[in-house]
Amino acid sequence: MNSSISERIVTIRSSLPTSVRLIAVSKQVSAEAIRSAYAAGIRDFGESRIQEAAVKQAQLQDLSDITWHFIGHLQSNKAKKAIEQFQWIHSVDNLKLAVRLDQLAQELGVSPQVCLQVKILPDPNKSGWSVAELLADLPALNQCKTLQIQGLMTIPPSGLDDPKILSVFNRCHELAKEIQEQNWPYIKMQQLSMGMSGDYELAVQAGATMVRLGTILFGDRP
Predict the structure, then answer these.
(1) How far is it, in rounded angstroms, from Cα 41 to Cα 146?
(2) Which fold has domain 5-218?
(3) Centroid of chain to Cα 210
(4) Fewer Cβ close by (within 10 Å): the C or N end of the chain?
(5) Model confidence, pTM
(6) What is the pLDDT of residues 157-181, one digit of tens each?
(7) Pick from 195, 193, 197, 222: which is nearest to 210 by CA?
(8) Coil, helix or strand for 77?
(9) End-to-end distance of the chain based on CA atoms, in angstroms?
(10) Domain regions of the chain by residue span
């Protein structure tokens, strides 16, 4: 990729509806590159490792209007650090973790925004609720009153063709609607975090409100 980070951002931005939030996935990317993306107008950055993010967050403290999104697999023992460092957690992937985050949020006096990670198709390589498990856990999730449950996150299994990927994203959108129609007081379904560098256009077509783009903005990682 010979174009600059800012040129790529301008190109991608112009192709996205204004309703879609562009999250620049900055894992394995330097603080300097994040500054370039920031200068090009990006305010949402996604990281998947707590410690790596902490180093960059310390270097970028002067950019006080950045919103940090945690998008990686979150272990329970890192839950406290996650809600101290991130305003959004996209990868809440089981009930036990949701309950733990809710307790910590109460203790710390914060209300992190979260998405529930769901596996629309079975996938041994990814974490998340199956559709049936998520529907069964909704009453318990509705007890997590400090967490701001805002919607769903999904990642299709690798190796699918475009029509199958699109059907995964469409099903996630339908599932969010089904949950919304149940009118849970503490579960909102306004956000769909779907789509990465290789499939974000399909995700947008299916109603994504947030796309998580790394390689297409920053180039290949080492």
Answers:
(1) 31
(2) TIM Barrel (3.20.20)
(3) 7
(4) C
(5) 0.96
(6) 999 999 999 999 999 999 999 999 9
(7) 193
(8) helix
(9) 14
(10) 5-218
